Every structure is written in structure tokens, then in C-alpha cells.
Amino acid sequence: MTEKTAITPATHTAAPAKFSHGVRKGNILQVAGQVGFLPHVDGRPPTPAGPTLREQTLQTLENVRSVLEAGGAGWDDVMMIRVYLTDTAHFAEMNGIYNAYFEEQGLKEAPAARTTVYVGLPDGLLVEIDALAVLG
Amino acid sequence: MTEKTAITPATHTAAPAKFSHGVRKGNILQVAGQVGFLPHVDGRPPTPAGPTLREQTLQTLENVRSVLEAGGAGWDDVMMIRVYLTDTAHFAEMNGIYNAYFEEQGLKEAPAARTTVYVGLPDGLLVEIDALAVLG
Amino acid sequence: MTEKTAITPATHTAAPAKFSHGVRKGNILQVAGQVGFLPHVDGRPPTPAGPTLREQTLQTLENVRSVLEAGGAGWDDVMMIRVYLTDTAHFAEMNGIYNAYFEEQGLKEAPAARTTVYVGLPDGLLVEIDALAVLG
């Protein structure tokens, strides 16, 4: 029996319901949908890194990375990244931010497969990202 | 060679196309997108449990559970739950229903990671949920 | 340590950002979101197979198949197919195309679980599909 472990980085805001920011079981790690909330500060409600796509995308990717690392993984282990945007006009800008982020992370190759679709998100949020990793 | 097995709970309405309500291969079980249809009755078309978010969310979660159990799994095995709502105004209410459901299931911990996004669904449906489980 | 391998069918248009059309690690293969772009021709921008749901759905499924095959897999290995449409009115027609496609592929059984939701896609695109396969 392999144990399933909840992953809850200390910096994260509490999940708004009975779910975990990440779960690992054996060599599979699933990161829950992350948005661009800043690290948690006691007494402050969840606060986006800023109103712009750039601020939110970078913070969202950092939040995904925090969950991966708290679960013993990294970007190299990620198989699939799901990107949810609210506006098709944001695609090119998001790709630029995304590429620059992974270059800064020192990844020479594309880290994963990806699907991008355009959905509704709560007011003020422009991007949500989740990820599936396979370790080992 | 591990066999892939289709999972089709007897209570479920037939899938509207060539896909299965669930598939298991080795220790991985994928539940297809479930909606709030009542258990199948011969001669009756697929019928939502009711018009409300509460009725549909509870029935949808039960439909996910039926597939998990027909495949030899349960909520404890679930790694990821994807929730599709049609209206951001439903988020808080869905979370309340979701939390109460899992408390009634006797789960002390968050069962899984989760992503919630807001999409279009066929007329009258307010919620769709799918799930990925890793057994063992 | 199992190696993660990017899958890039020669016929595919280049991904518009730092991601791969598919990734395989061990027995898990993830296909990125595919759309109905025709095989790549040097000097031609990405071009949909046509304006209709039929043309785009068939091309999209072929593009998924190309990635599966380039990664050593096939439809029989697929556990989950995610279908993104832009219009709920397309559901019945997509199902007909989908069923006929898999019959032509010689698959007697439903190949996988599936979730269909309705989202925005870039201008002119009516369908996007991704897939998760477990080999072996």
C-alpha cells in the first residue's frame, strides 16, 4: 500500500474547500489549480500579485513550483501543464511570459505537454494553472 | 501487458458516445466527466436530479463515487478532482456542498487536489466533475 | 531514474511556446491539446483543416493519434480524452464524428473515459482535444 500525501506549502493561502494544493502517491504528483495569489500573510485575505497578466502568470507559476518542491519534485518532473486564461487575446503575451520564466528556471527543453483553454475565473483573476508530475 | 478495463456502473445512463464512464489500467483509474443525472431508468431519457446546484452537485459526486467503486476504488484513492461550474457566483455554495459531502463520507482529510473553472455546459446542467485515482 | 522524452511528430506545426506536443515517462504518455491544424508545410502558418466541425474534429483526432504513435502508443492505450468545444450545439454532431472515427480505427470498444466542456478557443478553432495514455 502506497500512502497518499497531501502537499500544503507553508506559504500558500488555505484552500477554500476540502482539497489539497497538491497530492502525491508513489511516483505521481498532482498540483491543484493555482492562481496568482501572493504568499499567505496572517489576517490578510487571498491577494493576487497584481492586476496584470504578467504579475499573475509569474506568481501562479511560482505557486505551482512551490507545490512541486514541497512534494519532492520540480519542473523537470512535470508531464502536463493546464493553462486556463480568460481571454484569447492574452495567449501571445502569456506565451512570452511562460517562455521567459522557464528560461530563467534554466530549463533548456520544453518541460511538459500543455493545454490552454479560455474559461471564466473569479473576478480579477486572469490565469489558473495546474500540473501533473511523474517522479523518478 | 496490463489490461485496460472499461467501468460502466449498472445505474448509469449510457454514455452519449463511444466512451466509458471510467477506465482502469493497472493502478490508474480515470473517471469520465459526470453530471447530475439520476440513476438510469429504462425508457426515461437522462434526467438531472433537479434544477439546483445542490441537487446536481450531490448527484454528480455520487455518480463519480459509483464509477470509483465499480472500478475497485474509493474517494481515498482519488488524486485529482476537476470541477466545472457554469457561474462564478456558484463557487462558495458548491464548496459548502462539497465539504459537507466529504464529511458525510467520513473523510477527515481533503481527498485530493482540485481545479475549478467556469465553462459552458449543456442546457440545465450546472456542474460537471471528473476524477483521477491512483490505487494501491 | 526513468527518462522523460518529448514527443514531436515531424508533421506537426511547432508548438507556439516552450512545450511539447507530447511527453512520455515510463508507461505514462500525455498528449498536449491538439487542434485541427493541417500537417506542417515550411513557410505556411498553422492552418486549420477547414472551417467546419467535421474537418477540424477529424484532423484533431489524427493529430492526437500522431503524437500517440510517435510516442510508441495508440488509441488502445488511451485512458482519458478531454474534448473542448466552443458551442453546446456542437455536441451531437461531434459525437457522431467521434464515433465514426473510432469505428474506422477498428476499435470495437470505447477507447477511454472522456470529459467534454465548452470553452473559448482562438478565432476559427471549434475543437481542441488532449489525451492521457498508460502503456504496457
List the SSEs and their pairings:
The structure is a homotrimer of 136-residue chains.
Chain A (H helix, E strand, L loop, with lengths): L3 E4 L14 E4 L2 E7 L18 H18 L7 E8 L5 H14 L8 E6 L8 E8 L2
Parallel strand pairs in A: 4-5
Antiparallel strand pairs in A: 1-2, 2-3, 3-6, 4-6
Helix pairs in contact in A: 1-2
Helix-strand sequence of chain A: EEEHEHEE
Number of domains of chain A: 1
Point out poorly predicted stretches of chain A: none
Strand arrangement within the widest β-sheet of chain A reads 1-2-3-6-4-5
Q: What is the helix tally of chain A?
A: 2
Pfam family, one (chains A, B, C): Ribonuc_L-PSP
Protein name (chains A, B, C): RidA family protein
